[in-house]
Amino acid sequence: MPKDHGIGAAQKRREDVRFLTGAGQYTDDISVYGQTYCAFLRSDVAHGTIKSIDTSDAEAMPGVLRIFTGKDFEGIGGLPCGWQVTDKHGEPMKEPGHPVLAQGKVRHVGDPFAAVIAETLEEARDAAEAIVYDIEELPAVVNMKAALEEGAVKVHDDLSDNLCYDWQFGSDQADVDKAFAEAAHVTTLELVNNRLVANPMEPRVALGEYNRANDESTLYTTSQNPHVIRLLMGAFVLGIPEHKLRVVAPDVGGGFGTKIFHYAEEAFVTFASRQLNRPVKWTSTRSEAFMSDAHGRDHVTKIELALDAENNFTGLRTDTLANMGAYLSTFSSSIPTWLHGTLMAGNYKTPAIQVNVKAVFTNTVPVDAYRGAGRPEATFQLERLVDKAARELGVDPIALRRQNFIDSFPYATPVAVEYDTGDYVATMDKLEEMIDRQGFEARREESRKRGKLRGLGVNCYIEACGIAPSNLVGQLGARAGLYDAATVRVNATGSISVMVGAHSHGQGHETAFPQVVAEMLGIDESMIDIVHGDTSKIPFGMGTYGSRSLAVCGSAMVRATEKIINKAKKIASHLLEAAEADIELKDGQFTVAGTDKSVAWGDVTLAAYVPHNYPLEEIEPGLEETAFYDPSNFTYPSGAYACEVEVDPETGRVEILSFAAADDFGNVVNPMIVEGQVHGGIAQGIGQAMLENCVYDENGQLLSASYMDYAMPRAEDVPFFQVDHSCATPCTHNPLGVKGCGEAGAIGSPPAVVNAVLDALNAGGMTVDHIDMPLSPHRVWKAMQG
Amino acid sequence: MTKVTMTVNGKAVSKEVSGNTLMTEFLRDALHLTGTHVGCDTSQCGACVIHVDGKSVKACTMFAAEAEGAEVVTIEGMANPDGSLSVIQQAFQDHHGLQCGFCTPGMVMTAAKLLEENPSPSEHEIRDYLEGNICRCTGYHNIVKAIMAASGQDVSGIAAE
Description:
Mean pLDDT of chain A: 97
Oligomer: heterodimer
Number of strands of chain A: 30
Number of domains of chain A: 3
Strand order of the largest sheet of chain A: 3-5-1-13-10-11-12
CATH architecture of the largest domain in chain A: 2-Layer Sandwich
Largest sheet of chain B: 5 strands, mixed
Order of helices and strands of chain B: EEHEEEHHHH
Structural class of chain B: alpha+beta
Largest sheet of chain A: 7 strands, mixed
Strand content of chain A: 15-25%
Helix content of chain B: 25-40%
Number of domains of chain B: 2
Shape of chain B: elongated
CATH superfamily of the largest domain in chain A: Aldehyde oxidase/xanthine dehydrogenase, molybdopterin binding domain
Helix content of chain A: 25-40%
Low-confidence stretches of chain A: none
Shape of chain A: globular
Number of strands of chain B: 5
Distance between the termini of chain A: 56 Å
CATH topology of the largest domain in chain B: Ubiquitin-like (UB roll)
């Protein structure tokens, strides 16, 4: 029987009721008394010198309260980068300034250089259009290889060139060179990881409000991590101390990484509301989102695999160019390095690995984390490469993978991480069972009879989640700790509010987190509420990204609940006149072991707040505990994915017939939510593989800035998915044994799709080594023509 | 400014609007019915779907003045009279057909119209009908499943779960 309650129960989500009835409260749904509206004037050229901005006509327009330009932000901090990467020569990365409003130059299409505050949104937009400006267009640099050439146009005049850093990581050079020198076979692949736009369905919104009575500012914003925004904006940009700054992220309509970062618009509305002493609201249009939300991926890579005569992997080396865009977004520098290089071992025991990454400035929107963040790029390279190696060697691609699997744990890779648990054979066995691999050739034959080319693509993935031990990431350049925090507040009548630093924007924390506390206390979930998204209510927190919420914040919640149990047992021992060591908590009752004496949860909590009969000399009244949890390692979810496609040889059109995912997430709290996370991730991965592409022309004009031009996956583009998470090897170092599931689908699915299409073409008699994503009919058709 | 009068979720409303006020702005700003969401500016995403005189309409594509005399239903008007979730809303919760919830109002409104027109749609018919509604969270799996379940079809054989 499946469980109804506690850990492992597929409980329906309590947050759904408000979302299904229109009662959700997203940031744009919040309006405050005296609110004004903000419209940004953004650069329509990729690179240019601001010669003049004349706001006088615009200022005289109806409803206009004030117009700001970059000059108003002189002497005020710029947007900070949260991770300093050190290059292979020991030098810190180049870190150009990133003003709230552009000063002197604009550096990408969408770079804001003026902003209007007016009584209505229409008035603000009209006035923004009436600003007279002279921006002298300069040549733009868009292509990364061109950006690194001698004499290339510089994105930042004060830097020596466009190279942010040249990073090298992994095994000793000599070991890698030896592996390649002695290799029986070397497989080489050059590929592009296409630039994407995260596109949460809710565009970003920021509403700044200043209370002159107590000198406090409040920012309502569409953020995955309100405390991080408070810290970055308060300490580095505007100089507002934390106790005078409240950041609220209410219901947030999806994040996928792009709502992690501190954005100029947040600092701007907070600053402007203090200047005007009026609330200031900005709501992004979708077109603005395309040119101001941080983009994702955009790597160009050459990767090589060395194999010995028995087809064992002996060496791996990669050279990647990673696009940073025009400025360093909050965590941009860490993505192609520590979240990418450390994953290059994948699921395989390759003994020598070297990763080289050059990060490059270009006149494009900044690039930062997008679902998976570095790990999809690593997985794509490796899993495409292994497939190519299998084809070159004439061996079965699954057998080649199995032969090279890491099969004992813990396993220290040559790229610095230590996998605690995993069972890659089990997930691959499960996958082969799910997809009826034995029956594939018959299905291929059936397709052939209909004139279609059928292909099966398989791959594995490993990811590092639950970021991260603070002392480790500190050594690697992180400018923040990466613990999380939770406060468990038990009220007098026994109901509980749990204040958590993680933020839920689709992940269902309000349902899943109470299941953990309910399990520990033996009470019903309906007595427990989760509070998140408001720095004034929550002790601290680092937010939700990198599939970390349950592994890190959930662990803090467990630790705080353990403290609650310890204190409650002391109270119960007093009430029951028994030794504390004899008190047991089960099903919401404290009992004395071996007796029928008991006291209910609610009686103990009431005693804590009405301490008439209470050990006041030993413990304080009240029942509220806080815990901070700093993980001792990353977690390592892993799995095996398969995609089956049919290609139309006449048109190059690809149809995805089926997709299967066998994941190891360790323990699972709510399987329904976990499966939903995998579905969504797979759809985004299929989107990357088949449809999505963020395109600039050579002048830096963004050609894909609306849903007319950027192909989002729609219901017809994806099949039903088969997902399984039964091959669980629990994490060994967090109290719940959980690993994280949010990004797996997006990490594991692109190579399966591309491998499947290439299998179809090659089995159909063509020789095609690689096609860059997205696999549009045109690209596939062109590849088929040779 | 023009005076516009219509029925919204069974209640008569009358407001002054300017000629270029979009229906989305009218619902969200004038009536404070913020369940109708705006996810794009090209009428692609479908987060703003409402029903106007029995037809499903993207509210960002019409002016408030065009709804003069109309019967309008928004997501706030979809629950049963006693406040409980309608069959479609309940199916979305039962089958985890939503995550962040932002596209959900439009999905529910579109699904309701689909089931009126086609009481027992196939998987393909559902996917085809959802062409104008984008969801970034669910991969559509559980949305399609929820709509099939709401139409009374047995969904127990659908992959996963």
